[in-house]
Amino acid sequence: MSNLIKRIGILTGGGDCPGLNAVIRAVAKSAIMQHGLQVFGIEDGFLGLVQNRISELTTDDVSGILTRGGTILGTSNKCDPSQYVVGTGDDGQPIFRDVTDRCLEHIAYHKLDAIICIGGDGTMSGAKNFVEHGVNCIGVPKTIDNDLVGTDITFGFMTAVYIATDALDRIHTTAASHHRAMVVEVMGRNAGWIALHAGVASGSDVILIPEIPYDLGRICEFIQERSAHGKRFSIICISEGARPKDGGQVVAKVDPTSPDPIRLGGIGEQLADDITQRTGIETRTTVLGHVQRGGTPLPADRILATRFGCHAVELIVRGERNRLVVMRNHEVTDTEIGEAADKQRTVPPDDPLIRAAESVGTFFGI
Length: 366
Ligand code: F6P
Fold this sequence. Notes:
Blueprint: E1 7-12, H1 20-34, E2 38-42, H2 46-50, E3 54-57, E4 84-88, E5 94-97, H3 100-109, E6 114-119, H4 121-132, E7 137-141, H5 157-178, E8 181-186, H6 193-202, E9 206-208, H7 216-228, E10 234-239, E11 251-254, E12 262-264, H8 267-279, E13 283-287, H9 299-317, E14 323-328, E15 331-336, H10 352-359
Parallel strand pairs: 1-2, 1-6, 6-7, 8-10, 8-13, 9-10
Antiparallel strand pairs: 2-3, 4-5, 11-12, 14-15
Bound molecules: 6-O-phosphono-beta-D-fructofuranose (F6P).
């Protein structure tokens, strides 16, 4: 089977994250040097497939990119070829068309035997569409949110947690000086993994995640009790997807041209206002935003990305089809690619890290 495979494509889809270049490098180097394959970079995720922006990658192209953030191929979190935006209607709403056929022509033109799709749930659902049209797609799980079903961890997550932890540590010292409550809003969409891990690592006093809707009154009591016991500041790490038990998530913007149109953001500011109003305690908010996705990956993410990229190539060479590379119980292995499409892996309420945090006095808002 392996001798039938000669040319493979590679794309990065969805929001970027640290470690994408490390996967691209691992794929290109192992495919070219180890297996004598040709590797073709597809620009800007599925958009490059639609627009036929595909060109060969050499080992020189991927040399020196291991430590670089972002992706040398570019990415897009707005392109789903099965629902491609071709214009705007009189009502101002986008007009969609299925342009999968156009992509299939471009795949055939470049004689790609398989495509490695590096991305999150949206990218895997895009890949599933091509799988249904007979294209061999191998998925590599990426997202700072760590919310991909099927894998214990995605690369990029550990770096995002590190960045958020560093920010929370810095917030700690200024909070202590000014005797304030400080709210730090982190990313994660509907999953609280970044908030949970960075919150625990930084010793945040309160951690609020989407999976546990919070009780504002109890948070205010908790902060006031801390004050009464001489702790004149409080650090609250809140996930952008968190919400009060009697309210909804805060949506920063809706992008109708994106397959996942909701952009969350603003719950931190809302919570800070609520705390100040109820307690009179001066409260400030910091929104970390895209800084969590930028810059050089941690060594752990470079290693994970390298292992994932090499495994993806091995799968193709072995003649496997439509697999998703995953990490399970510390082993790099693989599963069916459709398993990760259009689903999100959220924090279970009985996650051992929640229990450990509660044991050291961290409050989860209920
Ligand atoms: O999925 C990664 C992520 O950074 C989420 O944590 C966040 O909600 C979203 O992407 C932001 O998307 P955008 O880059 O479109 O603002």
